[in-house]
Structures are given as C-alpha cells and as structure tokens.
Amino acid sequence: MARLTPTAEMTTGPFFPPRYVDDGAHDLTQRNGRAARGERIALHGRVVEAGGAPMHNLVLELWQADAQGIFRDARDPRHADADPGFAGWGRAATDADGRYRFTTIKPGAYAMPDGRMRAPHVNVIVLFSGIMRHLQTVIFFEGEAGNETDPVLTAVEPAGLRPRLVARRDGDGYRFDIALRGDGETPFFQD
Amino acid sequence: MATVTLYGVGPMDEATQSTRVIPGYPQTARRNPAVLHRRPLTRSELTGPREQAAKLALLGADIAGRGAGQAIGQLIHVRLKVVDEDGAPVGGTMVEMWQANAAGRYIHPNDDDHAPVDPHFYGAARVLTDESGAVEIRTVKPGAYPVPDSNHWWRPPHIHFSVWGKVWLSRLVTQMFFPGEPLNAPDRILNAVPDGAARESLVCRAAPTSEGPPNALVFEHRIVVRGRAATPAA
Lengths: 191, 234
Description:
By secondary structure, chain A is an all-beta fold. Helices cover about 0% and strands about 30% of the residues of chain A. Chain A has strands spanning about 30, 35, 40-50, 60-65, 90-95, 100-105, 110, 115-120, 120-125, 135-140, 165-170, 175, 180, 190. Chain B has a single domain, classed as Aromatic compound dioxygenase (Protocatechuate 3,4-Dioxygenase, subunit A, Sandwich), CATH 2.60.130.10. Chain B is mainly beta. In chain B, about 5% of the residues lie in helices and about 25% in strands. In chain B, about 45% of the residues are buried.
C-alpha cells in the first residue's frame, strides 16, 4: 500500500485557548471515579527558553504506564490487567513563572519482549508558540537502579547528559526542570 | 501473553516537515533544542492514550452560533478527515481546533490586536472523529492578522488543529490554510515546509457549492498522522 506523507506539524502559536487546559487534566490519579493504585506523587518543575526566561502557558502532556508498568492500550500484552483507576494521560500548562505541576502515580518498570527492562519513566510532549514540531522527552526517577540500563536513557550521548532526564526527589514528589535550548538544555528526541 | 498487533512509526522525509528554526520568527531560535537525540522505539512510545475526553471537555462542532448568537463572518463548514500513513481512518480520536474571528482576533489574553472581538465567537471546538475519521465543523472563515514586531509579517487565514493518532508518536498539531489567499505565499510558517507538495497539502480544498448546505461554503481537508499498521513485505 502506498504510504501517505504525514502532515507537517506547525506551532500552536501564542493563542492556544486557555479553556483547552481543563481543570483537573493535570491529575492522572482518577479514572471513572476510581483512584489509581500505587505511589501518588507530584511531578513538577519549571520551563525556560534559551537565556533563562520562563515560559508562560507552555503546554505539557504526559503518557505513562501504571504502577505495575502496564499501558492502557491494547498493544500492551498485559493491558487486560491495567489499573482500572488509571488512564495514563494528562495535560498541564505553565504559570507566569514557568512552573507546571502534575499529580500522578509513580510508574512501574516493565520487561521488553527481549527481556530487557524499561526503568520507570514518564513520556512528555512539549507544545508552545515558536515550537514548530512537538518536542519529545522522558522523565526518569532518581534512585532507580534500572536507569543504568534503560535503552532510552542510555541512548543519550554523551552520558553526562543523562542526569538531566532524571527527576529529583522534592517535597511530596519529584522535580523535573526543562530548558528548551541553551544552558542545561534538556535532551529531546527525534524519532 | 496475548497477541499484539504491530503498529509502527518510521522515519519521515524531513523535506516534508517544518524546519524548526525559522528566519524572521525569533522565538523559534530560543525554544527549539540545538541537539536532538535518537533512541530505540519501545512499547512506551508505540502505545498511546485513548481517553482524553475523560480529562478534556468536548465543546461541540458548531462554533458559528445560531439566531441572535450568530457570529459575524463568512459561514463555512470544514470537513476534516484524520487518517494514518496507510490511509486508514483514525476513528474516535479527539480533534481540537482554534482560530481567529472573521476580523483576525483571537479570544485570548495574549491577543491585544486592535481588531474587534466578536461577542458571539470564541473560536474553539473539541470533538471526536466518527468511525470514518471524519468531523465536520461549522464556523466562520478566520481573518488574517499582523504578527507584532515582525516587520510586516501577516498570518494568512488559518485554522489550528490538534489531533491524536493511534500511538504516542502520532501526536500532531498543525495549521490548515485556505486556497487562493495572497498571504499564503509569503507566510513564514507555511514556508517552513521545504517540499512544495507537502506545503500544498496544508491548504484545504474548496468543495463545489453544490456539495454544501444552502447557506455555507464547504472546505475539505485531510490530516495524516504518523504510523502504519504493518511493515511492507518488501
């Protein structure tokens, strides 16, 4: 079958509707009135551009496995056992100081078909004015032994950049700051 | 373990996609990473969310209003179809759209342009596609507007779309342009796509007036999200 060319992405521009960041979309810990299982955490941080200016109204979206490492998707071989209280997706926007905050559960590790393990992680999409193609990054968690062998984290070279993808324990959760470009630039992926 | 249907995302022809840093659009030089890393693709990126409507309220497909609440402007219907790289419809997926009013003004705190606000037009729809991947949105044609501090750059009439495909890597935010608009050719954003055919695919098609409702013009458009069901045998 002929392959169609994917439509070119374009920036959200500066006028992404405020009503598109619904109240509650930043909270992943409920589904159909049920509470998610696992360790409830805040996942928060600050987003800056090159030069350090904070980004206001920048949109972040998350996709992650549940506490057992299962994705709510039929392509996950264990999806029948997915947590009925967890859908794995959320959206938040940054405030005037560039700060965002999600409430979620800490995802579990899972085994890949070849037996290698994916360490606990959260996939992140960044959308904003001036970002022509959505940015993809991944949040890992401080103190996880599996970080050393995770195939995505260890794909980041040089290795000295990898700590930038590891969220640090902070208060009631974990902190993950994002630099879109320049000093301390967060590793982003092109797939 | 259950059998899992393969669904893949392959490399894209970069000429068909937007350049990340654009001359004359200074924010792009501050907000796009200097380095992009490659990674192996795993279950995590090749699965994706389905239940956005549980977190994001649907807003309805008729944003032009009715009766005394009717927006000012050229009434149009946008017939959008969302498909994957196989041409397979993406049914039941969320589509968000937003646009300026007929005078080129957005309802947004960042828009302090002098163009008038239309009290009957907010300019945002959020709907789910049907099983054929289609949605039809009733709205008014957006106006052009000047980009502040840009040395006379005006955005042509356009509608923003945010859609989800079948997996995480299929996420797509884009803009749809209108045929025959003189501001299309010089637009710095539309011109960020190097390939001419890919650029042209961002311009919707005006349907014959005989195919529309009696009181609105119809524009048809297709969005292709990344991903295909199977690797070709060859």
